[in-house]
Design a protein that fits this description.
alpha+beta
């Protein structure tokens, strides 16, 4: 049911007299409403991110933060999360397809490199502008690495984030990765299966 013919009405405490207003809906039903304005100024409470425990990590991302997917995940799971990509093209590495999302324009971009035959994720990428807080990036890095965030990896991210170093390379189990500043001064994270390149 849609209401038609609504106009904004402004009241002050001095001029307010409760009134009843009737509207006709598109379904030819009459809707009657009593207007009772609230003259108090609403308090806007800033949204505080939940206290995230980086030790709690699941195979598929959910909840607070920017979703990060670890290599090995099926392509369909990523498409279900993000929908239609901003761009799809042939990947740099043989037998791969690259998919890109601009999740938050000028702030967060995600990239995925899939095996063309198996449709499995071979490389996962994220790029963050400096305005994205460190904790959000840490949560994403944790899920991108398959819940393998450790103190060394965290220090590597912090050194790039705080501009103490330009890049940091790492290996965790069967994954390799890099955290670096890209050509647009964003924090770039790339994690791939060790046998990809």
């Amino acid at each position: 049911m849609f209401l038609i013919g609504l106009l904004p009405i402004v009241f002050t405490p001095e001029s307010f007299h409760p009134s009843t207003v009737g509207f006709a809906s598109q379904e030819n039903q009459q809707i009657v409403a009593t207007i009772i304005p609230d003259f108090s100024i609403p308090k806007i409470t800033p949204i505080q991110p939940p206290n995230i425990d980086l030790d709690q990590c699941s195979e598929l991302p959910s909840g607070y933060g920017i979703p990060g997917f670890r290599p090995g995940i099926d392509q369909n799971q990523i498409f279900q999360m993000f929908g239609t990509p901003a761009k799809i093209e042939t990947g740099y590495w043989p037998n791969t397809q690259a998919v890109f999302y601009h999740l938050i324009p000028n702030r967060v971009s995600l990239g995925f490199l899939f095996d063309k035959k198996s449709r499995k994720l071979r490389q996962t990428e994220a790029a963050f502008s400096q305005e994205v807080d460190l904790k959000t990036i840490l949560i994403t890095l944790n899920s991108m690495s398959g819940c393998r965030l450790n103190s060394t990896l965290e220090l590597g991210l912090k050194s790039v984030y705080n501009r103490q170093s330009k890049d940091y390379s790492f290996a965790v189990d069967s994954l390799k990765g890099i955290i670096q500043r890209d050509q647009y001064d964003r924090i770039y994270i790339g994690i791939w299966e060790a046998d990809l390149h």
